[in-house]
Amino acid sequence: MEEMLVFLSGGTGLLLWAAGLPAVLLAVWAATGRERLAPFRVRMLICAALLYLSFVFFFLSFGLEEIEAVGSSARTAPRLWAAGLALFTADQLRRTFQGRAPRDPESGDIRRVLATAAVVAFSLWGMDIVGYYLSSAVMLLVLCVLLGERRPLVVLSLAGGWVLFSWAVFSRMLTLNLPEGLFF
């Protein structure tokens, strides 16, 4: 079992993971064709993709080396992200199956989706210049405004809370170095 997980976390295993996602999405697309689930098809496709991504993170963590001198395992961070992502996605699926989730919209706001993707890409690029903490805080501030949140206390507390959480979990608990830029 361990050998299979190590193989799947290697370079050739990545091709299998990449080929598996369309197969999973196609299966979910076919399964949601019934009348009861059809209004939630896009929501369920997104949930399936996120669950698949969380399983990929989990399985890829088996390919990371154990380094005892660091203080925490390199496998901890991807497994932590995978568990959180799977938990919240499973909750979203539960609400969808219970009928408490809103139906998929008839049409989407493509400009907002592209702007969100640009903000995230700019934030990833900006980590090399200003560092993780400042880059992620600015990204959250801009995304909150872009998505319609206008209360300054909510926007600032969300960005500040995320930076504090990131610092406490990754820097203090897991002793992992987050990307540092030229300034921080």
UniProtKB/TrEMBL annotation:
Keywords: Membrane, Transmembrane, Transmembrane helix
Residue ranges the record marks as coiled coil: none
Domain DUF1468: 46-179
TM spans (from-to): 6-30, 42-64, 129-147, 154-174
UniProt protein name: Tripartite tricarboxylate transporter TctB family protein
Organism: Aminivibrio pyruvatiphilus
